[in-house]
Write a structure and sequence with these properties.
- This protein is an alpha/beta fold.
- It contains 6 helices and 6 strands, in the order E-E-H-H-E-H-E-H-E-H-E-H.
- It has helices at 33-36, 38-41, 52-66, 85-97, 112-124, 138-144; strands at 12-16, 19-23, 46-51, 73-76, 105-110, 130-135.
- A 4-stranded parallel sheet has the order 4-3-5-6.
- Strand 3, helix 3 and strand 4 form a beta-alpha-beta unit.
- The radius of gyration is 15 Å and the shape is globular.
């Protein structure tokens, strides 16, 4: 779906047992992420989780979009082999050290591995905090960011 020039697309609502959430699909959405998440971020601490490769390629653009907010960034190594409980523990420690609280928001910015880990970490941190996925790969856009599947490998 392509939004018309200069306007937002109509969100697609995903309904899962007990809740629902919107999916936004729009040209240039990364540059508008701050505007689109303004209501979600208002009055709460936000944190970004990304892998080092995605962050190097697209991190500055996301931060420009979020300005004047400067959420702390938690970086993990890229790749499926890092989708482990040990990495989740490091993410949780970083959230704690940087002042995350029950009302905080975690933004998972990356492919399926980051989305899975971000969702899993958000679900267990302080018995669950809100999270948003900004998928950066086609597979993450059509698979791992839809339906609430999260987890790590054992």
């Amino acid at each position: 779906m392509k939004g018309s020039q200069g306007s937002a697309s109509t969100p697609i609502t995903v309904r899962v047992p007990g809740t629902s959430y919107p999916i936004l699909i729009e040209d240039g959405l990364l540059g508008k992420a701050g505007e689109r998440m303004d209501g979600l971020m208002a009055g709460r601490k936000a944190f970004i989780l990304s892998d080092t490769t995605v962050w190097e390629l697209w991190g500055k653009k996301l931060l420009r979009s979020l300005a004047p907010r400067r959420p702390p960034v938690i970086l993990v190594p890229p790749g499926e082999r890092h989708k482990r409980l040990a990495t989740i523990e490091k993410i949780a420690q970083q959230l704690l050290l940087q002042g995350a609280e029950r009302s905080s928001l975690l933004v998972a910015f990356g492919g399926g591995v980051v989305g899975d880990m971000g969702g899993f970490a958000a679900s267990i941190f302080l018995r669950g905090i809100d999270y948003v996925q900004i998928p950066t790969t086609l597979l993450a856009q059509v698979d791992s960011s839809i339906g609430g599947k999260t987890g790590v490998n054992l």
